Amino acid sequence: METGSPDDTGTTGIPLPPHPAGPAGEEPVWTGLPPGLLRMRRLLLVVWLGLLTLAAGVLPALFLAPGWAALALLPLALLAWGWVMLGRNWRSWRYAERADDLLISRGVLWREETVVPYGRMQLVEVTSGPVERHFGLASVQLHTAAAATDATIPGLDPAEAERLRDRLTELGEARSAGL
Q1: Where are the beta strands (DSSP E) in the chain?
Q2: Residue 40: closest CA among 86, 77, 85
Q3: How far apart are CA 168 and CA 72, in angstroms?
Q4: Most buried one in 4, 6, 107, 164, CB count within 10 A?
Q5: Whole-angstrom distance between the N-terminal and C-terminal Cα of the chain?
Q6: Long-range contacts of range 162-166, CB-CB < 8 Å, 24 or more positions apart?
């Protein structure tokens, strides 16, 4: 039998179990975060590090000597580094809805993938702080019986966050009813 054929049975003739991604080995359909979250985080970075740059450059130059204004280069370098890192972090976030669970993947250096079975969800909430509301964003947070579960999807469009909340709640009720 050729490798990769649809009815691959491995070397022993026993059929291989389906891939953890789902039935028949298909990959989950991943959804990335909208670009509004990246814009919001970069704006906050510019505001806070811009103020720090001003303080680090202007205050020493006024009270000490003009050469001390070079201290402003440190927050500017941090701003450039943070700009790139925020982009990499934003691209690393994604989520996928499968038949029995929700996958959340994130992380640049340390990849972290959280799998939350629908039947284990106790509460699904949509939150949006004042800055998030200004940018038209909302976050979905899933609560399970395990206190260590960190299942949050930040920076979604509010309509998508509400749709996801309603779908996850519906699936959670359907799955937990069989317990």
Answers
A1: 31-32, 94-97, 101-106, 112-117, 121-127, 138-144, 151-156
A2: 86
A3: 48
A4: 164
A5: 42
A6: 162/126, 162/138, 164/97, 164/124, 164/140, 165/124, 165/125, 165/126, 165/140
Give the Cα separation of 48 and 44 in Å (integer): 6
112-117 and 121-127 as β-strands: parallel, antiparallel, unpaired? unpaired
CA distance 45 to 36: 14
Cα dist from 105 to 43, 97, 158, 173, whole Å: 24, 12, 20, 24
Q: List pLDDT tens digits, range 146-156.
A: 777 668 999 99
- Please give the structure tokens belonging to residue 59: 């205050």
Put simply, whether the predicted model's pTM sits higher than 0.90 gets the answer: no
Give tens-digit pLDDT for 97-153.
Answer: 998 899 999 999 999 999 988 888 888 999 999 999 999 999 999 988 777 766 899
Structure-token pair, residue 157:
């469009």
